[in-house]
Design brief:
The chain is α/β, with parallel strands linked by helices and 176 residues long. The chain is built from seven helices and five strands; from the N terminus they run E-H-E-H-H-E-H-E-H-H-E-H. It starts with 10 loop residues before the first strand and ends in a 5-residue tail after the last helix.
Length: 176
């Protein structure tokens, strides 16, 4: 039996623009749910990270092999019985659909909020390659997940513990 009290492994994908709190929520959820935490940023090539660090947004073509690497790793982990939380921008529906097409048991958790609040959070951090100047490009690339049944919306402005409760509720997992 996998962590979380279910016999089938699942993947919780915490998605949103850079600075929305994906990593924070995905880490907290992994701890509360007994899951493996993954950061999609770790699947980017060094070239892609360098481009973004220099203020250049990635194209969809540049993102495709990144999403393919993520889907392959998730498939391997789910086959091994692991529950996984993934911090993943998921800005484009095509990228969310690539994960869906991998046949993974997914629940997307969409962190949404106002650009100014997110920008203020980005300005406060010093340990990330994504500069604040790319936030507008993140919002421009975002295709909000309207009419996607496997997506739960969580407000960025909620306190971290409230976000975690929302995430656990969306997964049908009792807070412990």
């Amino acid at each position: 039996m996998s962590a979380g009290g279910s016999s089938a492994a699942r993947v919780a994908v915490v998605m949103g623009v850079s600075g929305s709190g994906k990593t924070t929520l995905a880490r907290a959820l992994a701890s509360a749910w007994g899951a493996t935490f993954l950061d999609a940023d770790d699947f980017h090539s060094e070239q892609a990270k360098a481009l973004m660090a220099s203020g250049q947004p990635l194209t969809d073509a540049m993102r495709q092999p990144w999403v393919e690497r993520i889907a392959a790793d998730l498939a391997r982990r789910v086959a091994a019985g692991e529950n996984v939380t993934l911090a993943f921008s998921g800005l484009r529906r095509a990228h969310r659909d690539m994960l869906r097409q991998a046949g993974l048991p997914l629940q997307f958790l969409f962190l949404h909020g106002e650009a100014e609040l997110i920008a203020s959070r980005m300005r406060a951090r010093s340990d990330h390659y994504m500069p604040v100047c790319l936030l507008d490009s993140q919002f421009a690339a975002l295709e909000p997940p309207h009419d996607e049944a496997d997506v739960a919306r969580i407000a960025v402005e909620l306190a971290p513990d409230a976000q975690l409760r929302c995430a656990l509720d969306a997964l049908g997992v009792a807070a412990g």
